[in-house]
Amino acid sequence: MQRWLWFFFSILISTSVYFTIRYGLRPKPIPVINATEFEQPPQIGAVIYRGLREEVRSEHVLLLGSDMNLADSGQVWTGFLKTALADHVEIPVIFQREGVSPIEGEGIQIVPYSEQMVTSGELIKQIKSRVQPGQLVIIHGTTDEMSHLHAESLSRTLDKELERPVLALSTVNATLTSEEQERLLKECYASHAEAAARIDCSQVRESRMLSKKKSGKIWAAVERHGLKEYLVFVHH
Fold it and tell me: CA-to-CA distance for 165 and 228, rounded, in angstroms?
């Protein structure tokens, strides 16, 4: 009987190891800023900067992602940028994705970039040429492009090129209809351990949670996903 018990546990352990290697571990998101009510989108960015101040100031490269279904993402990051500049963070350049609502910062060079610059490697080349000690280079694009939770993201490419993980902060639209929640939930369940599914699953969860809050202009919450990845959920 004992022999069969050991055999059973050997199979169980082998199976666990296989699925860990095959699909990887999915760390639980860590709340950084609990659901908070805001009057204006720039206030969200200001609070995020203050909450992550030490981490931001230690970086040389920062990626800001904007959910294309969230019209005021640019305003969120403008608030973040203005707060960082007031804190004397030296930001020489912002690489701005064409077609994405721009962020504004006085005295900062804005370099627009296109899909062709991404695929050709020209954007990476220009980013690397601008990285300097004591300065923060910002790249602003879509959440899909910036977030580490997408396999083909710019953040993952920069991790390899710079030989260190880069910090990525991305907004996620948490104002969803019941139909949108149902669709994303199906995608979440269907995609198993695919990295992108973590955004879908978190988006549904946060949308449901924030929609229960009392009436207000804007609600937002921030979660950490992994070492250098933050998602900013915004609900109107």
Answer: 7
